[in-house]
Amino acid sequence: MKILRNTILLAFFCLLVMQLNAQETWQSNLVKLNTNGSLSYTPDKEGNIIPDFSRVGYHHGDKNIPDYPITMMLQPLIAGDCTPIIQEAINKVSSMQADDTGHRGTILLKSGEYKMEGSLYIKTSGIIIRGEGDGTEETRLISLSKDQKALINIQGEGKITEVEGSRVKITDKFVPVGTHSFTVASSKNLKVGDRIIVFRPGTAAWIEAIRMNQIVERQGTKQWQAEEYNLRFERVITAIKGNLITIDNPIVMQLDEKFGGGEIYKYTYDGRISEIGIENLYLESRYMGEQDEEHSWIGVEFNHAENCWVRDVTARYFAYACVSIEAGAKNITVRECKSYEAKSIPTGGRRYSFNNWGQQNLFMNCVSTQARHDYVTGARVCGPNVFYNCVARQSLSDIGPHHRWAVGTLYDNITTDNQINVQDRGHMGSGHGWAGVTQVLWNCKARIVAVQSPWVSGSNYCIGLQGEKTPGHFRDRPDGIWEGHNKAGLIPVSLYLAQLKARQANK
């Protein structure tokens, strides 16, 4: 019997290999994988290419998430609120001296149930909170709070602050998407390693061209205002040759002279914290009913932070998100996390399982159920950002840029039983309008998908989609760039992984 079983298994695997080998593969005309592992990009008539999305997440993916030894260990209280004892441990580690890597200490929460009446706050760099697993019988933080807050808050402070006298005009009349270099009026006060903002101004001419001053109104609709669309992309100078500047991450939105062009300036961000990790935890928000709103809103929230991570965290019953990354957070990695069974009214501003407003962030290998917008970006989000190899089940609405012009997002191998949409959302919400540009769907699976491109400032892409194509909310908007609709065998299978591998091979 054992020999027969092994023979059947061997035959099955042989058949599987034959099927895989027989499967016809194909490549995009826009990005091709070469035999040596490098990638070739085909520009459009303006010189735009699909950008390199590989410099996202913790230290741009160039460092592994560290595994530090335990500094302090806690056991759950048999009864009572565990918030004070965990916060006291955080405060104690916060006062410790950081080592050369920026690490202060790792707090281990032993398995068991930690009842939480309040929220935890991390306001200092170099702190890790680690459990012994994210299962329901492992390290469990149970929020009993009735406040609409995050259970774990990673909160620095400050903002992007321009260095006085450092602003320089970009002199190229047009800078295409995907480039890492451009010319400035003068580079004499710049050096390699400078942190700069690539500033793309909002102008009345651009608002007119993109028709976001003509949104068909309903009660509460707001037309777009130019000054609200000044975009600030965080970058680092990697090379200078004369007045030609090269930066680490690519341009992800065209800089066009007729819409104000662009500028750069050096900046500081005093108060931003880093090297913080949340890992191996089960988080739960207790609730009173399916549409209860008086309970914890978010599992883990980041703001004013960089080079941090969340991994192997399960969140259940939160009203808003497992992980929410706010506008002041960058280079955050969220991986192997799960958001289950959100409890709230299923309407606006709720059930955004993995939510991103920041820059250069990576969500990978995540799972979401019963959300409205499982993998989503907010307004005026400056990329690149990546969602890779994530699944949504029992989804109530759509995945994608949610409103008001997210720039430079890769949705790579996203699978949902509902929708992925990149479109003009018109007067949805309070006037969402065009949801974004340089939005790339790569090898995704969905029930229905709409991908449209705005009238100006770039394109959106849908490559290798498995699912039904729909015209979207407005049928007269320009179509996005589609390739290989319902055609299996796209190579590379993952654009993000291929770009990361190609870049690291050239280091």
UniProtKB/TrEMBL annotation:
Signal among keywords:
yes
| Keywords, ordered alphabetically | Signal
The signal peptide, as residue positions, is 1-22
Is this entry keyworded rRNA processing?
Answer: no
Report which superkingdom the organism of origin falls in.
Bacteria
Name it: Pectate lyase-like protein
- The organism named in the record is Dysgonomonas alginatilytica
